[in-house]
Amino acid sequence: MKILNPLLAAASALFATASAGVIGHCPVQDKFCMSIGVPESSAASGSGNIYFQVQSVADQYSWVAVGTGTIMSGSNIFVFYTDGAGNVTVSTRRGTGHTLPQPQSDTRVQLLAGSGVANGIMTANVLCQNCESWSGGQMDLQGKSSAWIAAWREGSPLNTQSADARITQHQDTDTFRIDLTQATVTQDANPFVTGAAAGTGNNGNTNSGNNSGTGAGNNGGIGVGNTGGTSSTSGSGPDMLLIHGVIMTAAFALLYPLGSILIVLVRKWYFHVACQVVAFIAMWAGFGTGYTTARNTGTLFKDGHTIFGTVVVSAMVLQPILGSLHHHYFKKNGTRSPVSYAHIWYGRVLMLLGIVNGGVGLRAAGSPQTFTIVYAVIAAMSGVAYVACALVAGMRKGGGSGAERSKEDGSYSPNSATADFGPNRYGYQTGQGADTSRNQQYQFQSRGRGSDEQYGWTR
Length: 459
Description:
The chain has helices spanning about 10-20, 40-45, 240-265, 270-295, 305-315, 320-335, 340-365, 370-400, 400-410, 415-420, 425, 435-445, 450-455, and strands at about 25-30, 30-40, 50-55, 60-70, 75-80, 90-95, 100-105, 110, 115-120, 120-130, 135, 135-140, 145-155, 170-180, 185, 230-235. It is α+β, with helices and mostly antiparallel strands.
């Protein structure tokens, strides 16, 4: 697709004449921009009409959105997408954090003249009659640092007139601030076209925006005439929520189960430890990205996913300690202890809880169905592999000799407990015909190191 150029000089001049006080910001340069104007009467009274324009490349975005405030939670959000008939649908929604913003009709908006799709550009000229306050907050119409957020999703246009249409999760976001004292316009009328009445669209959460006007963006490009009163507080970058999901999936649905499987298949404790250390580090990296995202969206410790996830991650700190205690005890005694079983079952429970919480997070984020399916497949495959290895370990334990069982359970080398402290070290015989006095002497000498049965030996 051809990248659109900035507004033609003539159009910019016309725009500047019609709306000298309008200022704007582009979340995505030349592809997605917003401009805003506040009538002098509204600025003086602190309430009343404000006007804003949103433009985007029509066939590149599934939807674009702007909202008030610094975070998604509690934001007064305006979502824009093509209606499939040459016009624009504007959907007013209430931000609730990680979850899909829900349509609401409290915000009174009208889609004005100049709105529509022309020359490959979607333009929405909007009148908002009560944007100075909403259930989630307030906006000072004379604020020198009015906070706004933006989000977008690339893809095929929605092409629907339904204001309740389900939208997929955003790909990226932006936050910025606008000095509304520099956005003052003289007339309480549509500042984005010349000779237009204040409103030509429908109220509330529906619209039939007409395409009769000459919008500032309908002349071959996307841009804003004045950006002097705006500042971006976070540039476009990788979607932290997506990064969080990928890392946590790798940690709980892949690496932790793999580390548990390696102890059965390879029977070398250091492979198990290496894999679990990588998983542990990845888990904390994922927690960091999740914490940042939740803090920025205002959902930190306000929904089940963030609370439950924090509990699981914090509880996992104890697992390496239990593993170390198990390892040292087994190396010394050649058998498991209660700590060993605590390490095994505690880890299994935390892995399962982490995987379940990942599914909760996908649902809370309104993730595409494809993501959910991929996650479910990965988790199921890891679960099947883990159960299969557990069954194999059980069969080995049931069918092998005592010494073999001890070795397999602990996965230690031949130079560990059995070799160091077995009967042959002391030159004693076991079984039928053994010297009773020497056996008794061995039993006395080995006291504190574990009985014959603990090491898998029989007399």
